[in-house]
């Protein structure tokens, strides 16, 4: 997590610039103003570190082989204060046991796999030279940009200390004709214009290969949207699925038969 990027300031930013950026983002992301609570938490964490000269210095100058953890600074404790590791690393590490660095990898899945979740085999080289092969489970409901942490699967460059974690950043690719809005799925369905006029029932194939019937009332207009509950994307925490929203598009047939065209003309005149 790059705290400077979160606040949108350069690494040379002054304390005043950091404070100004924080206030602006805190107001923007505050839940009472319709903001994102998760982003506000990141903004608060970034400001907590960068607004304190000691914490900022430790963040800007991490020790080789170790990962910076903002929790090390909770309640004003300096993680580099007084430790038997001072002579070894030139810094104090407090009462917390140091650990190896985290490893961060990207994992690509598609929107269909977001519904079901996916197991991935990942390989990466550690500082020790070992080629690590692990199987990680991406849970249903993961979003593009999510980072999933797997404890103890990170680097092992210093064998005396615990391994770091493996952070898997999710990249979700699109599936043609399907879009995502939070935990809802959006799609379009083309229906014959006459079926829209008279009403009909259509069969939809969902993104996860299920079938569901959708009744189209007579007089349905192009662009009208219908919702089908429980066929969206699972909530990553609860597993409860969102809804499927179907936008109706009209298919207008090309008619060359003169008799049929005359019949349609007669119907049109009667409607007038």
Helix content: 25-40%
Number of helices: 8
State the fourth-level CATH superfamily of the domain at 100-174: Urease metallochaperone UreE, N-terminal domain
Q: What gyration radius follows from the Cα positions, in whole Å? A: 28 Å
Strand order of the largest sheet: 6-7-11-10
Output the helix-strand order.
HHHHHEHEEEEEEHEEEEH
Quote the average pLDDT. 83
* Major sheet description: 4 strands, mixed
Distance between the termini: 66 Å
| Overall strand count | 11
CATH class of the domain at 100-174: Mainly Beta
Q: What amount of the residues lies in strands?
A: 25-35%
CATH domain fold name of the domain at 100-174: HSP40/DNAj peptide-binding domain
**Global structural class:** alpha+beta
């Amino acid at each position: 997590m790059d705290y400077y990027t979160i606040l949108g300031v350069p690494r040379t930013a002054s304390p005043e610039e950091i404070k100004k950026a924080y206030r602006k983002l805190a107001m923007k992301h505050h839940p009472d103003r319709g903001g994102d609570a998760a982003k506000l938490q990141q903004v608060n964490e970034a400001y907590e570190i960068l607004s304190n000269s000691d914490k900022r210095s430790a963040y800007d100058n991490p020790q080789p082989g170790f990962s910076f953890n903002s929790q090390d600074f909770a309640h004003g404790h300096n993680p580099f204060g007084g430790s038997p590791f001072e002579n070894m690393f030139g810094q104090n590490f407090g009462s917390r046991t140091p650990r190896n660095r985290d490893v961060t990898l990207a994992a690509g899945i598609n929107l269909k796999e977001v519904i079901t979740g996916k197991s991935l085999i990942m390989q990466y080289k550690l500082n020790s030279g070992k080629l690590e092969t692990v199987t990680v489970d991406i849970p249903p409901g993961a979003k593009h940009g999510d980072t999933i942490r797997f404890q103890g699967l990170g680097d092992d460059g210093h064998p005396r200390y615990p391994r770091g974690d493996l952070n898997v950043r999710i990249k979700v690719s699109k599936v043609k004709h399907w879009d995502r809005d939070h935990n809802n799925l959006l799609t379009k369905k083309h229906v014959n214009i006459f079926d829209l006029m008279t009403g009909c029932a259509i069969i939809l194939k969902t993104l996860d290969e299920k079938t569901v019937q959708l009744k189209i009332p007579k007089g349905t207009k192009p662009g009208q949207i219908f919702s089908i509950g429980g066929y969206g994307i699972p909530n990553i925490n609860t597993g409860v699925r969102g809804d499927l929203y179907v936008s109706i598009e009209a298919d207008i047939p090309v008619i060359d038969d003169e008799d049929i065209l005359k019949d349609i003309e007669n119907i049109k005149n009667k409607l007038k």
